[in-house]
Amino acid sequence: MTAPDQPRHGGPLEANDGLMGVDFAGMYRRQAAASEFRPRSAAEWDARAAARSRREKGSDYAREFLARIDFGGVRTAMDMGCGSGNLAVPLARRLDRVWACDFSGEMLRLLAEAAEEAGVAGKIEARRLAWADDWASLPRADLVLCSRAMDALDMPGALAKMCNQAKVRCCLTLHAGGFFVDGELLEALGRRYVPRPGYLYAVNLLAQMGYWASVGFLETHGGLDYADEEEFLGSVRWRVGELTPEEERRVRNYAAGIPRGQDGRLRHRHDFRWAFLSWEV
After folding, report:
1. CATH class for the region spanning 19-183+194-232+271-280
2. Is pLDDT at 212 greater than 60 in this prediction?
3. Left if phi > 0, otherwise alpha if psi is -120 to 50, otherwise beta: which for 177?
């Protein structure tokens, strides 16, 4: 679906193109409803903010993401779903202004700490903002990005907001696989899953809107660490939903085989593959 030899914004597909009649928005909603996907609340992200921030510090993801951005013509950026600032802070070192947006108050508090520590607090403006909110009061930015944070049931609406907010281009990462747990754990659970709707929905929806997205992939290696079995169990619930007593027993058996570091924390290896979409507006 990607058209690298054509302008990234080439107008909508021709009316007689068969893809114009495909209801990708409806397909996305139906697959999302059938999968384990569900939008998280601000309170849920508040509770996970500290652990998420700690894990980001040991990840190579932010470096890989930033290396793929075309900064031509870009002096300002908006980071939607900024979390604790793993992208907003390095962007502020490079650009004149960054609007860092998240609906989690705790994430924004951690962002403020990181920005102050990095000496870029004066270049970052934090906004408490969700996908469903009115963005009218937010200034437009040269670059609008969303990194692993399109937690919206209305993907067409979310993509349209990104396009309307950007002056030059947009960047977006979505999980390139269907699940946020590794295959061995899924097998241990013994549960059959419908995968979450993936990045190809975004590529095709953007094409219907008249934007030709370039697509690349980046991988993160290593995995996550957990204080104990209970924290690992909570992480599995976060990804797949509530567990039956039998499933919980299976997860505990699986956790018993996870190696521990010298500090006693569980070291669970899990590699991720992400689709990196970029398009001009």
Report:
1. alpha beta
2. yes
3. beta
